[in-house]
Amino acid sequence: MINQTDVLDFLPALAAWGLLGLALCSTVEKLIPIVPSGGMLIMLGMFGVSSLSDMPGVVAVTAAGSTAGSLFWYILGRWFGPKRGDALILQMEKRLGVGSGWYWRLKDGYRDHRFGVTFVGQIIPVARVYLAFPAGALALPAMRFAIATFLGAALWNTPYLVSGYMLRRHMFDQDIALPAAFAAIMLAYPLLFMGYRLSRPSRNAARP
């Protein structure tokens, strides 16, 4: 069984590999859900960003690593397909006692708003890890899924990475680093949702 402490102890050593290490860390976060995303990204901001000029590159490589992890679950979903995928989720629900409502909601959302659900889903804890599986099971276009995942992951990663950098520079009190990063995400989410709703044509306008 994977031990959370062992994984967390391993991540700083992996981050020391430079940009490749940062990408691998963000991939691990998607593959091993026991790794807390916010804490890991703050750590990467502390150890992987030496100056603000490095920030765009670090955001890009961590978003790419996160996308790679999501593509693993996407490919797994494609392999299972919709029927076997549904059966697997039901089995997990029975064995682990975990509700599967999130899975069916994601599937319903994907039927109408594929890009938007993937993008916004990257800033929702828990869902950001598992939404790739139903996306693959429903055979969403891989390229659009990857692009939406990359953009959403970049949005999720940035506040945490910046918080880690500011901690390293002693510009941020340690006790407020994680809450501040989480607050930035929570503020971004309703703004994204409003923009998404406003960008959609109304049902009345869609009618001939």
UniProtKB/TrEMBL annotation:
Asked if the record carries the keyword Transmembrane, the reply is yes
Could you list the residue ranges that cross the membrane? 6-24, 55-76, 129-156, 176-198
Q: Does the keyword Transmembrane helix apply?
A: yes
* Record localization: Cell membrane
What is the membrane topology listed in the Swiss-Prot or TrEMBL record?
Multi-pass membrane protein
Q: Name one GO molecular function term.
A: alkaline phosphatase activity
EC no.? 3.1.3.1
Q: What GO cellular-component annotations does this UniProt entry give?
A: plasma membrane
Q: Broadest EC class? A: hydrolase
Which keywords label this protein? Cell membrane, Hydrolase, Membrane, Transmembrane, Transmembrane helix
Lineage: superkingdom? Bacteria
**Where is each VTT domain found?**
35-166
- Protein name as it appears in the record: Alkaline phosphatase
Name its species: Rhizobium lusitanum
Q: What is the lineage of its organism?
A: Bacteria, Pseudomonadati, Pseudomonadota, Alphaproteobacteria, Hyphomicrobiales
